Amino acid sequence: MRLVDWSSLDAAGREQVLRRGTAAAGPEVSAGVAAILEQVRSCGDAALRELGLRYDGVAPDNLLVPEVEIRAAVASLPVELREAIAEAAGRIRAFHEAGMQQDYAVTTADGVECRRVVRPIRRVGLYVPAGSAPLPSTALMLGVPAQLAGCPEIVLCTPPGRDGRPDATVLAAAAECGITTVVVAGGAQAVAAMAYGTESVPRCDKIFGPGNAWVTEAKRQVSTAEGGPGVDLPAGPSEVVVIADRGADPEFVAADLLSQAEHGPDSQVLLLTDDPELARAAVAEVERQVEDLPRADIARKSLASSTAVVAPDLAEAFEISNDYAPEHLILALREPEEWLDRVERAGSVFLGDWSPETLGDYCSGTNHVLPTAGAARWTGGVNVASFQIAMTVQRVTPQGLATTGPCAVTLSEAEGLHAHQRAVTRRLQRLGSGGAP
Questions:
Q1: Residues recognised as catalytic
Q2: I want to staple 285 with a disulfide (CB 3.0 to 4.6 A). Which of 9, 148, 250, 270 is the partner?
Q3: The dihedral of CA 310, 24, 206, 84: what is its sign?
Q4: pTM for the structure as a whole
């Protein structure tokens, strides 16, 4: 992890510091994903098995996990782990339930009522990664809001382990959310299966979930194709920014940086501070702590594209963070609440020394499926509304038409859309002639 002085960098140097490590992989990944999507579209289940063998080393005979196997997986887990899954699900449910959108109605003119009604998306696909580590927490983060939204059909795809079976903790998390359709498939091919449908996998209306650059690119490609599914957001390689002041604990700062660096070699972590001594101490602590990590090799690859930045002051540090728009932002500051208003763009914010990002990943209650690659500039994380459609409804009485119709006549005339106009004027004429409403 390198250490730089922000004031000494020119524009190109600053851009390089904030450049995501996956940016250069675009063309190769795009072409590879396109080939996988076409293979699944053309060959269905057979493609999933062949691609599973190629990328995961196994080709499951049964792509759909039987419900009896899901129940057996739950029973096989230690009681403590089962209880932790239920405990985390309870907090996630409580947080998301409190923010659910509601139907509402407004009378905008006499005789004109406009409503907004919420409906669940009919069939949603959830992708739960398990490449270098299974992520049952992601099954909860997606499954709980989908369940709260009332989605009639939920399909969950997750890669197999070396034995050809999905991870038992992922199955237990799925069961906690009432999910019974679990598909043993990972990577871009899983996204393709949910987007196009196969003999075993139902075609989904919207696809959710984080993943590596290949999964993220697959979501992008299927969502931009004609008739393709919707997708939640770009939730690719993990990233965290820590803004720390002189009073921050280097041990905690380093631990927070490494908690995201260990996700994958394409993850990125940034430290922003106004104190050079803290920056040097945190970098040294990162180097000490990484030696003890079981996933040290992965973390070191991530750290190679990560930076500790010494900014002129904390105000500038917040400007840098807002330009970067991180997935996770930790404010390791003495008065973090006082700085929160300075945060304009971030997927999830963690305030103070005792709010590790890890809690957000698992069990504080907020969602960990968050925008990456700068998408926090325009969207937030997954929530119940992500799994719903909001429709508007209007009911107009003859009096309401008489009140609002002339406005529509004037505006449609200005746009030269006379069929629009006559849909109103014909009714106004009927009312003016004393005809039945």
A1: 327-328
A2: 250
A3: negative
A4: 0.94
